[in-house]
Amino acid sequence: MTSADVDDMRECHSLVTPAPVRPDELAGRTARTAGRWRALEGVRLWPCEVPDDAVADRTRREASRPVGDGVRVVLVHSAKQARLVLVARRSALSERALRLLASAVTGGEPLGPEPEPGSPPRTTSGGAPEWGLGDRTRAGRQHRLPVSVAGDEKTLLAAAAVTLSTYTESSTVHIGLNDAVHRVGVPDSRSGLADFDVTPGGDRADVGIIVSGGGEYLPRLAPPNALTLHGAFGGGRFTGWCHFDEGAVTPAVAEAFSRHVEHVADQLVSAQGEPGGHLSAEAETAVLALGRTPLTGPGLTGRIDQVVAAVARSAPDAVAVSDEKTELTYRQLDERATRVAAGLGVLGARRGDLVGVCLDRGTDLVVALLGVLKAGCAYVPLEPHNPPERLRFIAEDAGVRWVVGTPPPLPGITAVALRDVEAHGEGRDPEAAGSDEDTAYVIYTSGSTGRPKGVLVPHRNVVALMNATRGEFALGARDTWTMFHSSAFDFSVWEVWGCLLTGGSLVVVSYWAARDAEAFRALLARRKVTVLSQTPSAFTQLIRADQEADDGLAVRLVVLGGEPVDLRGTAPWFARYPHTRCRVVNMFGITETTVHVTAQTIGPAEVVTGSRSVGRALPGWSVSVRDQAGQVLPVGAPGEIWVGGAGVAEGYLGRPELTAERFVTDPVDGERRYRSGDRGRLRPDGRLDHLGRVDNQVKIRGYRIELDEIRSVLVNDVGVAAAVVTVGLGTPDDPASARIDAFVVLPGGRDVGEVWSAVRGLLPEYMVPSTITAIPALPLTPNGKADLAALPEPVLASQARGEDTACGDDLGGNVLALWSDVLNTEVKREDNFFELGGNSLLVERVLITMRSRRMPRVSVREFYLNSTAGQFIDLVTRLGAGG
């Protein structure tokens, strides 16, 4: 083996997993899977048949072989057993991605987009994975910690394997061993693991173990492993040192890792069986304290409406809320909301009732929301642009008796116009509102059962959110905010009440302006907005629009939330608005924990490193990371994020079983916590890294979507025989092209067109699949699950119709070429932009490109009303002719 081969090996890692025996079937799955990721182009399967007694040895040799620039997949099999061996460069494919690939090839979970936006897998200088949270700028700074592990060689090896498995979330771990340990064999029965691979010799494994006759010495001047345990056995214990390099492992993680090995070994020795909890009681308490941020100093008290009333008394003539046509002072807002509250009382609404609000975005919407709260009721926002069937379900599920606004007909529910409610309350005083323990609002989120679920959030949670942030962000009367998001999206809770509870001025952005980055950017400049809240997807479009403008913005604070942030994409913003002038904060949060949970200020260092940190818990909130059994994990170990503290909601409306499952009493400290379903890890400084989801939920353009809800609607409401729903990218490596693909088995007499029509009437725009592909039957794995790797490529609408209509004129040809480029597929005149995978972000991309090419200017609203290529070409032609 040459030195180049050795270097190649050091930069690679491997995964071994049980596999179906038939090579031809597995080869087909491998080829189909490879088509989903550009990183896998050219991957193919090498079947390798060996005798039964040689499978394990051949597997080990294949896993240690170097690989070129791609991914090598080998099927090692015999008459009785088969293993799939995958080898890849760490820089090309993260360990999690490697496991997802293996699962997809063997017919498991969906592959999904890879890598996550803005978060390429980082490796240490030695090629070790990022589990140690090392700082590459500190590479070469070597340290050691004392360790004392109970038991013999097998106990030490098992404890190290269990600990490394905890940190890497892998049942296959790589431990470099010297001969003294390698001779003891693999202690599967005592490790608590189904399988782990032991790499002899110590070359570039994640953890090394060296047993010697004693003495103190550094194993190597430049340790080959991220972390090495070195020492000797005596008196029934392994005593020695944990050596590590800060370039690979931080001191805090090395300390936690060492204590975890000691703790697991103690459990194995005392219990003579499976390891129990990850941490001692003392360490568990310390980790929980690390993830908790205490609230200090006095804060706001009372209900939302009471705090707003106090602002109105102190600054009655300050502008509270405005839209394109209307402006209301705090006095006017309070007076109108008081009339609404009294009018609801006349209609029969009482404290604790749920009242629907279905109004377009404007000052009237804010008046109605505040009026419902003043009446002692809770508001249930109904987005008027959602399908009537969804509005009907939410209204009926919430049990509302009244809806303020003009919703579609809702049987058994009284709809009353806002002006009529105010007229009923003219000259009357509303009843006393109640306490801050009352529910303030119920916002519905996507549900895996096929129906959205309502989250009950009390007044005290919203007031606590402002107490946690107003001082840190210096929020006050000089600020101008925007209400950019739908009232049915919990980001609006932060925008509306964050502004009004701190005495700011709220600018309500219309539905169409929120979809036109250029128009929205002009509004920000015109109204001198200082506090801006955006999903990262929307912020990307705003940055592009801002690059075309000559004037600057007054924005001093940008709050990003709702989905992962591509930090590198924020660089153009900082080039124009330095971090010393405009603070950009990435906030992780969930509807069930009152919008926000953590906050991470983004600066040049975060942009350069592509940090995945979402920051520390807000004051009054807490975060911890748990395993599947709910046990607290040590610092640096990934698992499910649990959230506690002031933001935890009451639960789900009318769903006691689901509430009990997700909102739990922590057996450690008795605190009520929410199991988020998000993956993360706690850093030594208390900051949280967000690592994605643990379930079948996705976030697209800020919206939380349960793929199972879409599947359930297809099967139960639309009536297809069977369905599978996945997420893919229309254009590789372009997060803006993320789309939902549905695969359906149609009953006799049905066609895809009927399915399209039915789905659009049941699901909101952001949940409607971009493609619906008819298949004769669902492909299944040997265990009976849907074989997602065997699904065909999604069929776009034009492909399904088999059209071939060209457009000969230059303007039409330019439009078709632009649409084809943005949608990454050939477009014809009869094609509908949204049926080909288009979305609001791609609409913005088309319009911005048209403006840069000096083509006729088209508004977002005009685009939506002319969404087929032919209609759009005709529109652009008319506009170009001055029509």
Automatic annotation (TrEMBL):
Residues 105-143 are annotated as: Disordered. One of its GO terms (biological process) is secondary metabolite biosynthetic process. GO terms for cellular component: cytoplasm. Pfam families: AMP-binding, AMP-binding_C, PP-binding. Residues 806-880 form the Carrier domain. GO terms for molecular function: phosphopantetheine binding. NCBIfam families: AA-adenyl-dom. This is Amino acid adenylation domain-containing protein. It comes from Lentzea flaviverrucosa. The lineage of its organism: Bacteria, Bacillati, Actinomycetota, Actinomycetes, Pseudonocardiales.
